[in-house]
Amino acid sequence: MRRLTVLALALVAGLQFASSAAADDWLPHPDGATWTYSWSDSVYSPTPTTENVTVKDQSGASFDLAWTTGDPTAPTSSGTVSFQDTDSGLDNTNWSSTPPPTNFPILCATAAGCGNSLTSTYYDIIWGSRAPVLAEPLVRGATWSGSGGAQNDVSGVSTYLGQDTITVPAFPQPVVAAVVRTRVTQAGALGDPYGSGTRTIWWVYGVGPVQVVFAHAGPANAPVTTSVLQSTSLTPGAVPSDLDYFPLTQGLTERYSWTNSKYLKQPEIEQVAIQAALNGTARFTVTSVRGPIKAAGSYGYTARVSGITNLWSTAQAKSLAKLPPLGPKFAKPANRRHFFTPLDLLNFGFGPILPAYAKTGDSWASSPTGTDFEDYGVTGTSTVLGVQTVKVPAGTFKALAVRTTLKQPGFLFGSGTRTAWFAPGKGLVKLVFQHADRSTSQVVLIKK
């Protein structure tokens, strides 16, 4: 039984990891960075307001952006908005500004002391979805929920719609943007329904938001707030792949066949199902369908900027197959590893299983400290080989291949080379573990 661990930051901190992306690439904030937006509201402020945004301060993963306006014919405002780059994405931690113009709807239950406003680009961005503002990794089908407002009375459900090209004054030639749509709901404010509606943000990798459109709730002529990037000191970067090679989708069910050339010649057929999923974390269950191993297990996985990580695993079995023992040598025999399910073979060694935004050449190494080493006592390295064509009973897939070398001192069955293939929207479709004892375990996805 592998104990529940907190998010794998401590593990990843100990790895030698070549990552495809950093936590701040969707909103970089180098010293001196600038953005200029044109902001307007179709009803309450139809004359565009120029907002100049700068990096005010930063410390570690936390940073403050500041904006000022100066148009004589438009509302004048200034303010700051604070963020933190986290392993789950971009969080908003604080905000402050001059009061909104008096003609705008009041976004609180009472007018006195109202700390809410929607009269700037970044106020529109953080409204109803402060933690996270943008969830990562940003992969197809990603959804997340959040809340916001001074009284935490604004809720938002965000959906990543995919990548699309967009042209804005800052980039007259089309650039690729990640499009996120949020359904925002506020209850109890004097200014309802202005605090509710549908917001769409176009995020450009290496730059940040380049366009924000907030269609406020109400009839066809309800207000629409628009903000468009006019100029910036930043340059768009190469957009990472948004293919989901390890989907954490509730209800997804797969069936696998597992054999070993020496110890498990009769196939063990097991079903893997995602029973629950929320905000990038999911619980998998594994049950035996037929074969010499009667196994049942529960596994937790999380998708974060640090990659796909196994959080916990519990499995038990009545097995007719006599598999060699596993280490680590320093653990008591009762606490040592066993292979009961395909997920045990996949998890074995060290994490992450996959990096976020995985691409060819990404590599990472085990750490001599941390929970993974305590559980497995394995050293080695993992490398993303790239996309390969894989044919298994369930079909033919363009799958991302990851090769891992493993060494568990004193245990040949726990040492060797493992190659795993992951298909978009499917997850694991094939795994080959060439053990150092010259046996080979193979897992393939089969049709139900």
What does it look like?
The chain has helices spanning 9-13, 121-126, 342-347, 371-376; strands spanning 17-18, 34-41, 45-59, 62-69, 78-86, 89-97, 134-135, 143-148, 154-168, 171-186, 197-204, 208-216, 224-232, 253-260, 264-278, 281-290, 293-304, 307-319, 363-365, 379-392, 395-407, 416-423, 427-435, 440-446. The chain has 448 residues and is mainly β. The chain folds into 2 domains: 9-20 and 243-446, YmcC-like fold, CATH 2.40.360; 34-232, YmcC-like fold (Beta Barrel). The strands form 2 sheets. The protein has a 12-stranded antiparallel sheet with strand order 1-19-20-21-22-23-24-14-15-16-17-18. Strands 7-6-5-4-3-2-13-12-11-10-9-8 form a 12-stranded antiparallel sheet. The longest helix has 6 residues, at 121-126. It starts with 8 loop residues before the first helix and ends with a strand. Residues 1-20 have low confidence and may be disordered.
- The rounded Rg comes to 25 Å
Strand content: over 45%
Question: How much helix is in the residues?
Answer: under 10%
Question: In total, how many domains does the architecture comprise?
Answer: 2
- Going by CATH, the architecture of the largest domain would be Beta Barrel
Poorly predicted runs = 1-20
- By helix and strand content, what is the structural category? mainly beta
